UniProtKB/TrEMBL annotation:
Protein known as: IQ domain-containing protein K-like
InterPro entries, per the entry: IQ_motif_EF-hand-BS (IPR000048), IQCK (IPR043408)
Domain of life: Eukaryota
Organism: Vespula squamosa (Southern yellow jacket)
Pfam families: IQ
Length: 251
């Protein structure tokens, strides 16, 4: 009777024969169905795992490429007003596409002149960079047709007239040890200035200076210049003495 009830219960609940043996013998025998199920999960082949991972990677790369293309389209189609543009975006779009190739050409030219080994070398990297940027300015394409040296640029001529250069540049007069001290001093200063707390302090003093300048401009605008203030003070003193004289007469 008990076995029939157990068989009916097993048939209704779809319990395997291993579970039926547990009920009758009351022994701790594990279910064969669960063992076979877990064994199938654990025996997944390595090829299937690799294929699954590769499909995930391919799907991610495809979506990432679609996102990057969409982002480029949005950036190209977006209209950015000059006062809304970020400084980094302006540098990436306007300055670096011109400056970086010019700096690469400058390094190639310095290597050709062997400027890093010869101390008294005629090559000047700053002059070469200024000459390249001036002649390859995209706003003035005619300059590239007739190349001008740095000493033929009108702005440079005016600068030399106002601030003439010494006969020998400083790099010719310094020894290697003195030049190393200059470079090390600059590098140490840069390493200190890039620290977070130093940047915070510099921003504080900068904001304080701007606040003082703004307050001074506001005072000059509303109250007038110092001469006007002095005249007003003199007028006030005259009125004070007049009132004082009237007061003495009444006494």
């Amino acid at each position: 009777m008990f076995s029939r009830l157990a068989e009916d219960y097993i048939a209704e609940n779809e319990i395997c024969s291993g579970c039926f043996e547990d009920v009758e013998t009351n022994s701790n025998v594990q279910c064969q169905r669960t063992e076979s199920f877990f064994s199938q999960e654990l025996h997944i082949s390595d090829k299937q795992e690799e294929n699954l991972w590769q499909s995930i990677v391919d799907e991610y790369e495809e979506k990432q490429s679609q996102y990057t293309e969409w982002k480029k389209e949005q950036e190209s189609s977006a209209i950015v007003l000059p006062y809304q543009d970020v400084a980094s975006n302006y540098l990436n779009r306007k300055i670096f596409p011109l400056l970086l190739p010019a700096m690469e050409n400058m390094l190639v030219e310095a290597r050709r002149w062997d400027a890093l080994r010869i101390q008294k070398c005629r090559f000047n990297g700053i002059d070469y960079l200024a000459e390249t940027l001036w002649n390859l300015n995209p706003k003035y394409p005619k300059r590239a047709i007739k190349w001008h040296t740095v000493f033929e640029i009108p702005q440079f001529k005016l600068l030399l007239r106002l601030h003439p250069r010494p006969i020998f540049p400083l790099s010719w007069l310094l020894t290697k040890d003195e030049a190393a001290l200059y470079i090390q001093r600059y590098v140490r200063g840069w390493l200190v200035r890039k620290r977070d707390y130093v940047q915070e302090m510099r921003q504080f003093w900068k904001a304080l200076a701007e606040e003082k300048a703004g307050t001074k401009a506001f005072m000059d605008k509303d109250l007038g210049s110092k001469e006007k203030l002095q005249k007003e003070e003199q007028i006030d003193m005259c009125e004070f003495y007049k009132l004082l004289g009237k007061y003495k007469k009444t006494i």
